[in-house]
């Protein structure tokens, strides 16, 4: 910890010695250490909000941040700030498009070379902002041990029970048969009560161990409420003008039996309904990207295997045209047919009428947007954790793509299976 205390001392000294420069809007202080640590354990010890965490799907890069110096509710203004100041923003879009991007107070970026720590201050109101920055640094060198999450939980409510949700599916199928839609993705929200308070950082750390091959994310707006998840799905990743995305749709079960898993894999690869569902997502992504990119390439179908389910996936790559940027890609792609349906606008309108809850961040997108690169995941396999006196409320989301040939009861079983990705980490036999 000596190294972290040294960084803290350096930051305090730099802030105290700082002289604002005319026309400078943001003061930037940066340190690097070759030491690494659990950024979730670091976040657990911090007292400032909002808090942000993103563990890249390849497992190499991790971002953690606390506090905010700037906030944007318009993706165009956020992208303009990134290019003007050459700084990285964290945040994303909720399902129906509400944007939230922040320039944090403290940003930690960890990779194989160590951790780069950046402290931001408002140079325009430096004397006032200086005190907030120093207060945020007070716990910088602290970590709080992550704890086991095994405990008794009880079901509180579901937005729709099996019969109600299957009726939603039947209504969606009617719209498909009438030609209004070719696909709609219906979701459900299930809420549980924990026996004792549940720290979001603890549950996410547990998920990192078991839900491999995923992005792991957390956005905590306050100590009382956090949105977390472990999602297999990339929205897009940009490096310069090179763009990578994917169509992740079509689902089969995964369990403890290797032979049964292989049978499910073989079935999934040859099932016409799932193949059609995946192709719709490919077509939707390519159509939405077409005005902004060149040289779109779609790879052959493959399997994405997870702990509870496996999916069909086609990887897609393209080259961004020079005149376009992240704001264009975000607004064009989100939400994809994998989480909303097709046509995009009609599917969103239908979901507002069919579903009896607001998805907010579920099936939205969260990530990092910088001048040279961007990385955004699709926030499925996710949950809100709300602190209520001496217990927590865990509200879990899961959805399924409905196309011609979908069977309501089978789709219900699919969303129940998907929801277990997080719930089963707590306890398997008290549901």
Automatic annotation (TrEMBL):
Pathway: Quinol/quinone metabolism; 1,4-dihydroxy-2-naphthoate biosynthesis; 1,4-dihydroxy-2-naphthoate from chorismate: step 1/7; Quinol/quinone metabolism; menaquinone biosynthesis. It comes from the Bacteria. Its cofactor is Mg(2+). Keywords: Isomerase, Magnesium, Menaquinone biosynthesis, Metal-binding. Signal peptide: none annotated. Pfam families: Chorismate_bind (PF00425). This is Isochorismate synthase MenF. It comes from Bisgaard Taxon 45.
